[in-house]
Amino acid sequence: MDRFYITTPIYYVNDKPHIGHAYTTIVADVLARSRAAYGEDVVFLTGTDEFAQKTVDAAKKAGEEIRAYTDRMADLWRSTWEKLGISNTDFIRTTEQRHIETVREIWARVAADGDIYKGKYEGLYCKGHEAFMSEDELVDGLCPDHKTRPELVSEENYFFRLSKYQKQLLEFYEAHGEFVVPANRFNEVKSFVERGLEDISVSREKREWGIPVPDDPNQVIYVWFDALVNYVSAVGLEGWENHPADIHAMGKDITRFHAVIWPAMLMSAGLPLPGQVIAHGFFTIDGTKISKSLGNVIDPLDLKKKYGNDAIRYFLLREIPFGADGDFSETKLKERYNADLANGLGNFAARVLALAEKEELKLGKLDPEFETQIGGMKRTVAEKLGEFKFSEALAAIWAAISFGDRFVNEKKIWEIKDGEARKQALFDLVSLLDNIAAVLLPFLPDASVKISKALAWEGDVLRAKKTETLFPRLK
Length: 475
Ligand code: MSP
What we know:
- It is elongated and about 90 Å long.
- The chain contains 17 helices and 18 strands.
- It folds into 2 domains: 3-289, Rossmann fold (3-Layer(aba) Sandwich); 330-464, Isoleucyl-tRNA Synthetase, Domain 1 (Orthogonal Bundle).
- Helix 13 (330-357) crosses helix 15.
- It is of the alpha/beta class.
- 5'-O-[(L-methionyl)-sulphamoyl]adenosine is lined by residues 9-12, 20-21, 23-24, 49, 227-228, 230, 250-251, 253-254, 282-283, 290.
């Protein structure tokens, strides 16, 4: 069986999941589910990134002991994905033994290659980014993203010889034209590397929270060097050698870590590189940046209660073209819910099932126009999924729903007197609905399963039955 290995970033535990994190995880879930539907053996990894400085601060603020705090938060992330119907096959925490051992092993391999050396580092460290920043990235002395003053850090650190991999990285990019998607992000990555790479500091001095550097208990491994390795830890070194990740999914903020530093680390450790790094845009909420201090953070579980998981997925995937920045608004979500889900898919399914329930239908031959519609829809969906154009894939499915709706309205099936003609029209419609449910499976798993169940074939006889209302209209 073909294997497919996909990952999300591992999320920081200083806060609970918001709609931005849910978006990345849902994108990965759609891809995982679509490959599982093709019969592939899917490994779908997500998890939590716990050894960050901001974890220490958050635990302190919560008045909790750090282990207890991270346990509670990791459970919260894990259960959120479960409640959102995410099909991850594994969940990794960086505080797990399997991860700590792998990080130390990879460090040792990189060091054995002569790619780690000790040096003095002085720089401005932004805890929000968990990264050093240069003076010219600051605005009025503050990090423009986190609006905080980076702390001046001056210490002895271990460095990773990133500069050594410039040529090798550029050659790799050249040979793998779709390593980063979308293409504009790939161009950014390439020109960053072309401008020349500096070695990076990969440890911090005298910190209690972190994975100790092998043979130097005075230093802990820098959180990004640690975090990136999670993708190997989950499948083991041998597992990764046999089949590295096919896709790392993430937001555009962390592409550089995944498309530059991570491949260089793997090259140094003598491990194969991942297939693709796919990066989506960032979204605002009602036009404003998502931020706790602004109080506009949306908890996906609140949305689930009101609209259901399928509606969240549909809105995010349909509204925001993959790769572009977008805006999330509950008003727009509700509009799309009523127009596309309640009146569109839900209403079409209900009409077809109500008509089909009254008739004994047999497997037959599809009308050529329906055959063309169904074939075209399936081809477009597969093609658009392959290009990560989720919005266009959904648009193709909704075009097929409109075709079906028009057919029902124009044919007035309930008025057709001729039994055979009526049966043929219904068979065509039921087949269309059946195929719509099949292509919807990775996108809207709940609705898809309900529709498929309502269309049970017993041998070559169809027993259709009405379902509960798929998407009740909202006021
Ligand atoms: N822990 C690191 C990742 C390590 S991976 C080896 C990290 N964690 S994070 O919790 O900050 O998650 C960042 C990710 O959350 C982004 O890459 C993106 O996937 C998602 N998003 C966070 N805010 C977002 C928006 N406003 N919009 C869209 N996605 C957002 O970085």
